[in-house]
């Protein structure tokens, strides 16, 4: 179910980007906002063992936002907001995954494949 849902969202995102439709919008019918993630924070950027602690991006209403990963996980799981990345002409939805140890983390999903694209984003200020 999650995979099909992510595939549908990824298709919608690709279509919006391809046709120049704004992606940062709020839908009144469900009060859900899509937020772009364009930066991350890790305690040690070079360590493969350190997890991303915060993500951030442009706020649809102006300015910037930055939230702890746990809060973004809660937003996604509750259906309150959706998050995506869009870098160099490539877009992907951000979903919640659970590690073998039971820790929830964020990962991008596009074309039926989970990827670690968030790690390539620049550091949030």
Describe the protein in words.
The strands form two sheets. Strands 1-2-6-7-8-9 form a six-stranded mixed sheet. The protein is 22% helix and 37% strand. The chain is globular and about 35 Å long. The protein has one domain (2-120). Mean pLDDT is 82; it is low at 18-29. The chain is α+β, with helices and mostly antiparallel strands and 125 residues long.
Q: SSE layout and pairings?
A:
Elements: H1 2-18, E1 26-27, E2 32-36, E3 39-41, E4 54-58, E5 64-68, H2 69-78, E6 81-87, E7 90-98, E8 104-110, E9 113-115
Parallel strand pairs: 2-6
Antiparallel strand pairs: 1-2, 3-4, 4-5, 6-7, 7-8, 8-9
H/E topology pattern: HEEEEEHEEEE
Low-confidence spans? 18-29
Q: Which whole number gives the mean pLDDT? A: 82
Number of strands: 9
| Number of helical segments with 4 or more residues | 2
Structural class: alpha+beta
Percentage of residues in DSSP E strands? 35-45%
Distance linking N and C termini: 36 Å
The main β sheet shows up as: 6 strands, mixed
Percent of residues in helices comes to 10-25%
Total number of domains: 1
Taken from the alpha-carbon principal axes, the silhouette is: globular
Radius of gyration: 14 Å
Q: Strand order, biggest sheet? A: 1-2-6-7-8-9
